[in-house]
Amino acid sequence: MKESSLPVIVGIDVSKDNLDVYFNSENQHQRIPYKEDALHNLANRITKMNQPTLVVMEATGGYEKKLVRCLQSHGIKCAVVNPKQLRDFARGCGKIEKNDAIDSKVIAFFGEVNQPKPLANTDENREKLKSLTSRRDQVQSLITQESNRLQQTDDQEIRKFIQQAIDLYKNQLKELDKQILNRIEADPAMSQKATILQSVKGIGPATTANLIAGLPELGSLNRQQIAKLVGLAPIVRDSGKFKGRRRICAGRSHIRRALYMATLVATRWNERIKQFYQSLLANGKPKKLALTACMRKLLTILNSMIKNNQSWKENQPTT
Question: Cα 126 from chain centroid?
């Protein structure tokens, strides 16, 4: 790639109240308030540079979403990077010091060196579905916690309070499931994906919603890329004569959790996954490793189905 074809990088360190912005082409740092008018002024400044520009920022638990929406509305490309990846990069560059201004410069340098892939433009319908599925996971976790407390408590008055909380969360769970279903059915593209995914034994409505909301890349990547994105690709740990054990790491943990439960069901009721799982056990593989391999296999099958617009039956290999 020619140097002139590389975009100008703007690094932004995001906090609740302020943004620290570093323009690598101008070697200039700027702090602005994290407010709508300041965001639009920043977007206008970047647009007036009249050069291909990539804005790089770290994931900050959701604080970055408003910034991404604003910049994308002005046609500016954005990349959101894992914070640990940025800190490891900073240490590798000898940057032990840390403050917001330094972080913005490190982020810009990271973007210049690594050229991270820009985010797809925000889909408001998918973002809403993502929020609903995230809340559903939280409510399900709260139900489990309260149910455990109920089993451990003998005090009748306390049990009554706990049961009231469980009933409240169960009602909320029903409402969330209803809204998730309505949101998917109202979107033709999502509805088509849901039909394909739920043709697989083991993939229920909750897993389907998580995959649609949290893994929009499904069907657009190859099998190695999609496995690595979710964190199901074995990572090599070799050095010289030492051959380390392959492990999975990083990736989208919430998608792995959804796939884990789906795969547990699939190893019992989905003949293709069940046979694969049993063959791994018969070859001496530990159950945890075998289940992880089944998760990866199920994911790559789902990826192929979405890519080819095929249901489970249509995707089966011919004999």
Answer: 13
